[in-house]
UniProtKB/TrEMBL annotation, chain A:
Entry keyword annotation includes ATP-binding: no
GO molecular function, one term: structural constituent of ribosome
Biological process per Gene Ontology, one example term: mitochondrial translational initiation
PANTHER family: 37S RIBOSOMAL PROTEIN MRP51, MITOCHONDRIAL, SMALL RIBOSOMAL SUBUNIT PROTEIN BS1M
Organism annotation: Achaetomium macrosporum
Alphabetical UniProt keywords: Ribonucleoprotein, Ribosomal protein
GO CC, any one term: mitochondrial small ribosomal subunit
This protein's name: Mitochondrial ribosomal protein MRP51
Taxonomic placement: Eukaryota, Fungi, Dikarya, Ascomycota, Pezizomycotina
InterPro entries for this protein: Rbsml_bS1m-like
Region (Disordered): 442-462
Automatic annotation (TrEMBL), chain B:
Lineage start: Eukaryota, Fungi, Dikarya, Ascomycota, Pezizomycotina
Family in the record: Belongs to the bacterial ribosomal protein bS18 family.
Protein name (database record): Small ribosomal subunit protein bS18m
Keywords from the named record: Ribonucleoprotein, Ribosomal protein
Region feature (Disordered): 35-65
MF annotations from Gene Ontology: small ribosomal subunit rRNA binding; structural constituent of ribosome
Length: 462, 243
C-alpha cells in the first residue's frame, strides 16, 4: 500500500501533541460496592488519559510539545516528569494538566516485576482450588483474535473475548430493562429476517441430505424471502420450548457474550422447576466473570510466559523469581472480619492463600495484625508475585505467594541489607584493598618501571 | 493461685472418696488421675526430672493401680498444700508479672492500631491502584464522610417503589430515624423516583404498616442481631432509666 504523500507542514502537524494525543477513555465503572464512601480525587484503577513526558533540556524551558510552555515551578521539580493533559486549550487560555506520576510509576513498577498477564482458568470459580495450576497467556494465538468474519462469529464463541453485545449476567435489572427497550425492541423485524434465513438454511439442509440418501443431485438453495409467515410462527413456537436453541439464536443475532449457566444450587429453585432447562457446556474463559472491557492484557504487560529462570552473578540460576517487598497497606481486623491488604507495585493485592504466615494466628506473625508506628516507612513483607490478570472491569488482579527464605535473603543482599553464606560484601573488599589511581601509580613508581604517561608528558600541563 | 486451689479441691474429692470407700469413686479417681497426668503442676520443672512425687504418681497411675496413685497424689497434695518455698514464690511473681506485662503491651498495641486505622477509613479492594497521595490524611479523610449516591438506585434495580410499600426494610432506608422522609439530596433519587418513594412511605404509614416516629421494629431487631453483644443495652440497666 502506497503511503499518501503529506506536505511537510501537514506531517509536522500530525506528529504534534495537539493532534496525536488520544481522546480519554471512560473512567472505570463504579460497581457501587464502596457504598456512599468514595473520593473523587483518588487514583483510578486504570489511567484514562495518555501520560506524556519530555526531555530534561526541553523541560527546563517548559517545552512539552504543547501549544504553550507549561509553568516551570510545577513541572521542573519532579525527578520523574510525567503529566496528563486534560485540555490542550481552555477558554481561560491555559493548558489544563496534572501530574501523572501515579499511573506512570505504577506501570514502571509493574513491568519490573516481569510477570505476564494470564487468562482465568475456566471452571475454577474459587481461587483456592487453582492455586498452583498453570494458566494460559492472553496472547495465545488460539484466543487472541478480533478479526472475525460476521458469519463465523458463532463458531468462535468459545475463544473470543470481544463481543458487540453486552454480558447479560453483569447487568442490573434496570440496565437490562433499558437495554431491552432501547436496543433490542427496534430490532424485531431484523430478527425475523435472521430467523427466516435460518429456516431456509435448515430446510435446505434436510432436503439436501434426503437427496444425497436417494442418490440424486442436491436441490438449489432456498431463498429466505420464500419462507412464509406460517412457517416462521411454527419455528418460533418450537424455539420457545427449547431454551438453549432460543438463546443460541438470540445470542448470535445480538452477539451476546457467553454466559455460564448457574448450577441448581446457585439458582436456589426447586429442581422440578429447572429440570426442563437444558444447557450446553460453555468453555469460553470469560463466560463466568464477564469479557474484559479492553484487550485482556490491558496493555500493561506484553510478556507471554513467566517460565524463565533468573540468574544471579554469584549463586547462579535461581529456583524462584526474585522476591519483592510488599507494603501492608491495611492490617487484618479480625473483629470486623477484614483481611489484611498488601500493596505491591502500586496495586492492592490479597495476602498469600493457604497455610502461610498471613493466615496464621500465632503471635509471632502479628505484623499482619497491628500498625507499629516505630517502623520507619511502614511494615513490609517479602512476597513472590505469581500471576496477574485483568478482570472484566479493567482492574489488575495480582496474586502473590509467600517468598521463600532463600529468595528473600538473596533479594535483600542485592539491595545491601544482608549477607548470604557469610561472604564479605563486594564494596568492603574494594575499599580494604584501596585500589585508587594514586596508589597504583605509587606502586608502579616504587617498582622502578619507566615513567607512566601523564598529562605532563603530553604537554598539557606545565 | 489456681494451682493450689485445684489441688485442694482435688484433695477434698479424693479424701471423701477414700473415706466412703465406695466402688463408685473409681470413676472419679480415674478422671482425677488422668487429669493429673495431663496437667503439669509445676510448669517450670523440666519433664525429665523423674524423682519428684508427681512423676511417681504418674508412673503408678500408668501401671493401672489407681488407688495407689491416688494415695500418692493425696500425700503429694498434702505436702504441697503448705507454704510455697521462697524460690517458688519468686517464680510465681515473675510469671504473673510477665503475663500482665505482655497483656498490657498487647492492649496498648491494639489501641494504637485502632487509633491509626480510624484515620485510614478507606476499605481497599483488590486491584485498586494507589499512589503515595492516596495514603495521605487529606485523601483519607474524603473516605470518611458518606456522600449521596452517584446513581439512582431505583433506576439501577428497575423496580417501582409504589409496588413495594409493604417492604419495610426498603421504606426504612429512605426515612430518618425520626420518621421523616429523606431529602433527594440524601437519597440521590431523581425527582420522579423521589416522588414515588415518598408516596410509598406515606402510604405505608397511612396503612399502619410502618411506624411514623422511628424505624420498623423488625429493622431494629435485625440491627440488634448484627451488633456485638456488649453494646446492646440491657433492659435492667440503671443508667438507661436515669434518663
Amino acid at each position: 500500500m502506497a503511503t499518501r504523500s503529506v506536505s511537510p507542514g501537514g506531517a509536522l502537524l500530525r506528529a504534534s501533541r495537539m493532534f496525536s494525543l488520544p481522546d480519554p477513555i471512560p473512567a472505570p465503572p463504579d460497581d457501587g460496592s464502596a457504598g456512599n464512601f468514595f473520593s473523587n480525587t483518588a487514583t483510578l484503577a486504570f489511567p484514562t488519559h495518555q501520560v506524556i513526558t519530555t526531555l530534561t533540556s526541553a523541560r527546563k524551558q517548559g517545552d512539552w510539545g504543547l501549544k504553550r510552555p507549561l509553568p516551570l515551578k510545577s513541572t521542573t521539580k519532579s525527578s520523574n516528569p510525567m503529566i496528563r493533559v486534560k485540555a490542550i486549550d481552555t477558554i481561560e487560555q491555559v493548558t489544563d494538566f496534572t501530574s501523572a506520576t501515579d499511573h506512570g510509576m505504577t506501570l514502571r513498577k509493574f513491568q519490573e516485576l516481569g510477570i505476564p498477564i494470564t487468562m482465568r482458568r475456566q471452571g475454577t470459580d474459587s481461587s483456592t482450588s487453582s492455586i498452583g495450576l498453570p494458566e494460559k497467556s492472553v496472547f495465545e494465538n488460539e484466543y487472541d483474535f478480533t478479526d472475525i468474519h460476521p458469519d463465523k462469529r458463532a463458531e468462535a464463541l468459545d475463544k473470543r473475548w470481544k463481543f458487540t453485545g453486552p454480558w447479560l449476567a453483569g447487568m442490573s435489572q434496570g440496565e437490562f430493562n433499558e437495554w431491552l427497550a432501547r436496543e433490542v425492541r427496534p430490532k424485531r423485524p431484523q430478527f425475523r429476517e435472521f430467523l427466516k434465513k435460518k429456516i431456509a438454511s435448515e430446510t435446505h439442509g434436510t432436503l439436501a441430505r434426503a437427496a444425497l440418501d436417494k442418490g440424486e443431485s442436491a436441490p438449489p438453495p432456498i431463498d429466505p424471502s420464500s419462507v412464509t409467515d406460517d412457517q416462521l410462527i411454527d419455528y418460533v413456537r418450537k424455539l420457545r420450548h427449547n431454551n438453549q436453541a432460543l438463546y443460541d439464536m438470540v445470542g448470535q443475532f445480538l452477539d451476546l457474550a457467553p454466559l455460564k449457566p448457574p448450577t441448581t444450587a446457585q439458582l436456589g429453585l426447586p429442581s422440578q422447576n429447572t429440570s426442563n432447562l437444558e444447557y450446553r457446556e460453555v468453555s469460553n474463559p470469560y463466560a463466568e466473570h464477564g469479557p474484559p472491557i479492553t484487550h485482556p492484557s490491558a496493555g500493561i504487560s506484553y510478556l507471554r510466559s513467566s517460565m524463565y529462570m533468573e540468574n544471579h552473578p554469584i549463586y547462579g540460576p535461581q529456583k524462584q523469581h526474585s522476591a519483592v517487598m510488599a507494603r501492608i497497606v491495611r492490617p487484618r481486623r479480625q473483629a470486623q472480619a477484614l483481611p489484611a491488604k498488601l500493596g505491591l507495585a502500586g496495586f492492592i493485592v490479597d495476602t498469600p492463600l493457604g497455610d502461610t504466615a498471613a493466615n496464621s494466628k500465632s503471635a509471632a506473625k502479628d505484623i499482619y495484625d497491628k500498625i507499629d508506628p516505630t517502623v520507619v516507612g511502614g511494615a513490609k513483607v517479602w512476597v513472590q508475585p505469581q500471576k496477574a490478570r485483568v478482570d472484566s472491569k479493567g482492574r489488575v488482579i495480582l496474586s502473590v505467594g509467600e517468598a521463600s527464605t532463600e529468595a528473600a535473603l538473596v533479594a535483600q543482599e542485592l539491595i545491601g541489607n544482608a549477607t548470604c553464606l557469610g561472604a564479605p560484601r563486594g564494596e568492603n573488599e574494594l575499599s580494604r584493598r584501596g585500589t585508587t589511581a594514586g596508589s597504583l601509580r605509587a606502586r608502579y613508581r616504587a617498582a622502578g618501571a619507566p615513567p607512566m604517561s601523564s598529562a605532563q608528558d603530553y604537554g598539557l600541563r606545565p | 493461685m489456681s494451682c493450689r486451689q485445684w489441688l485442694s479441691s482435688a484433695l477434698r474429692q479424693c479424701q471423701s472418696g477414700l473415706a466412703h470407700q465406695q466402688p463408685r469413686t473409681f470413676s472419679t479417681s480415674t478422671a482425677v488421675a488422668k487429669e493429673y497426668r495431663g496437667r503439669n503442676i509445676l510448669p517450670d520443672r523440666p519433664p525429665g526430672s523423674g524423682s519428684g512425687p508427681a512423676s511417681r504418681a504418674r508412673s503408678r497411675a500408668r501401671s493401672g493401680n489407681i488407688n495407689e496413685a491416688l494415695q500418692v497424689m493425696v500425700a503429694d497434695g498434702l505436702e504441697r498444700g503448705g507454704q510455697l518455698s521462697a524460690e517458688e514464690e519468686q517464680q510465681v511473681m515473675v510469671d504473673s508479672q510477665r503475663g500482665l506485662g505482655q497483656h498490657l503491651k498487647d492492649l496498648r498495641n491494639h489501641a494504637t492500631t485502632d487509633n491509626y486505622l480510624r484515620q485510614m477509613p478507606r476499605r481497599w479492594r483488590t486491584g485498586d491502584v494507589y499512589a503515595p497521595r492516596d495514603l495521605s490524611p487529606t485523601e483519607m479523610s474524603k473516605w470518611r464522610q458518606g456522600r449521596r449516591p452517584l446513581k439512582d438506585v431505583i433506576d439501577v434495580f428497575g423496580f417501582n417503589p409504589l409496588d413495594n410499600y409493604k417492604n419495610f426494610s426498603l421504606i426504612s432506608e429512605f426515612m430518618t430515624p425520626m420518621g421523616r422522609i429523606k431529602h433527594s439530596a440524601e437519597t440521590g433519587l431523581r425527582p420522579v423516583n423521589q416522588r414515588k418513594m415518598a408516596k410509598a412511605i406515606r402510604r405505608a404509614i397511612g396503612m399502619g404498616l410502618h411506624p411514623s416516629v422511628h424505624r420498623h421494629p423488625e429493622v431494629l431487631r435485625m440491627a440488634r442481631h448484627s451488633m456485638p453483644v456488649s453494646s446492646i443495652p440491657q433492659s435492667s440497666d440503671s443508667s438507661q432509666s436515669r434518663l
